[in-house]
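User: Quick one: structure for sequence A, then sequence B.

Assistant: Sequence A:
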Amino acid sequence: MTYRRAVIPALVGGVLLTALLWWAGASVEALHLQGATDALGGRMVADLQYWLSPWAYDPPEALRLGSGGLGDTGVDGARYLSLHETGMQVRFAALFVFFVPGALLLVRRLPPVNRRAVVTLLAVWAWGTVAGMLATTVSAPWLIASSGRGSYRGLPQLASMMSSGQQITVVAALVTAAVTVLVAWVTAKGAGPLPLGVVPARSARLAATAGTVVVAVSSVVLSYHRVAASLQTVPLSGRLLSEPGDLLRKLLLLGYWAPPTDGAFGHWLLYRLGDVLLLAVVWWVLRLLPVLLTRATVPATAVGAVCATVVGLLVNQVWQSAVTSADSGTRWGWQHLTGALGGGVPAALLWGLLAGVTATVTLRLTGGRPETAEAPPAEPVTTPPTALPSEPAG
């Protein structure tokens, strides 16, 4: 698919995702009404405020009353308000800027035709979640400064903001992905044949395994509780760089696990099944990417691997939430069950990029460079190709 055709769904998706999160943030004010509490209940209102507040354009109550985080008033209070307003402008602008290029690359290399539609939907969904995380990260310095405590525990504050509002971002990104893929399917009509690639099965499996091993370094090795504790206590000198443990955990860990306690092996195994699902999703997607991509370039494979890691992470989180719900029900509230949803995206971005590059290099070293099977001109665009991944001869 050409850039001219792919840019339309990417722009539509970027505008829609920005509008959805803007609307979600604007809905926080409605939750402060007494009628909302009467209709939804106090716990549900509190959970929704937790979800939506990071995307609320209006400043917090302390700033609206004319005081910064240090109790300053007057001119200083106006400056804090200005910093918060600038930070939110940066957040929404960055959301659009980060989403569009990634969606453009995905739609162009993974057009939703020839059995690619579901994969394209999941990839754009995952990339929308990544764009939300990047937007909150880029805008964090302004919002931290607007609280009046910019120099106090700067790295822990940054780590906290990196995943703020991730639950509503996951929901908004899913809606955006559905609309983006629908528009891409329409624009792909008449784009010419976009057949699947042909890759030796052995090379594809080796590449997928190599990429999955990279992800396993985070989800298995670094996420072990003793290693995670060591990362938490890494010392750095300097006031602004002090206490980097929270940030390192956000960037390096895809989960957290410890050995089972006495008599709880079955319960422990249920939770660890989520980690297995994460690695299985990553392996399967990396196995199919060289076939599904119209051209398996390094950027396309790397972004695809990031999306695979994010989707696997979401599957893991949904599974663990289901296990927790089966154990304790909803008596702790939806915030307790969905608190981890969308978390770990910074680490998924880092390790997904490394996994994608590793898989691409492995594929090329093993002689598995994808070849496009040209479809006959007379066949319709939506006709599935007959060339599928096959075992190498001999």
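Sequence B:
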Amino acid sequence: MTIVPPAPGEPRRPFGPLDSGDAWVVSPTGERYWGRFGAAGLLAYDPDRGVLLQHRVAWSHHGGTWALPGGAKHADESAREGAIREAQEEAGVPDGAVRARFESVMDLGIWSYTTVVADVVLPFEPVISDPESLALEWVPVDEVDARPLHPGFASAWPELRALLTVRPVVVVDAANVVGSVPDGWWKDRAGATARLRDRLDVWAQRGVEASRVALDSTRWHPRVVLVTEGAARDVADPEDRDDVACAVEIVRAPAAGDDSIVAVAAEHVAAGDRVFVVTSDRGLTERVEALSGDGDPAEVRPVRWLLDQLDQVPAAEPSVPTAGS
């Protein structure tokens, strides 16, 4: 593998490299791939309008084809961060307009490309904001194949399209999870729940390995519903991050938390979502597993399943105070 910087005057970077990642990776057999640290693209999905595609300018790699806004990742940048940054630079995607749902990685060993599929949560109109686009359009899902697609995107599209209907939701029994860690939570239930909320947000944003939720592709960013009860109901809603809408929703149980957890799980099962309920409560487990709907039944994951993953997540700064403070 060889790293080759852009040539002087190269149209892709007419003013020279903008970041250390702006370089070609050249394989031993001569193939060139853009992005020293790999590349990432954003597939923004709006169920009412379709997917956002970029008509690539003639001088670009496979110019004249349609593909996703994207480009070279920066050093120490996650694929999600890189894809959203590139989409903001190339298509004017506003802060907080999309929520990442899953990532699909093509790994060639010397170089990788990650497609980040994200749901549009704040409708927007794309804006051509750099010289790499001839056009930006929302294309209905059924019409994507009719466009002359970039070969890489054309190869990935069938799998990506099939997964657009898969929506994982993790419903968390806050009392059960908080109560399983002897960290003094009983002194401040709302505060302990707020810490759990923030760690769940970071966990969902970083993504979950597909194998942990028995789904295809590489990594998933599930929606998280945190069900609180009693004194923990005072926990405040999380704030959206600058680049992507927050992944955690707070549901405050008006009475028994178990009843609200079952109701939330049933609602998502009926909507066709892939539902995972995190609890180690046996009675609640039986109630959840008895749910049925048009899609897959809800599955239960023990608290340890979640805690083992949260242990790998750095502690987050509290995003907001508790509602009662």
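The helical segments are 79-91, 151-163, 174-178, 189-206, 257-270, 282-289, 303-310. The radius of gyration is 22 Å.

User: Thanks, that's what I needed.
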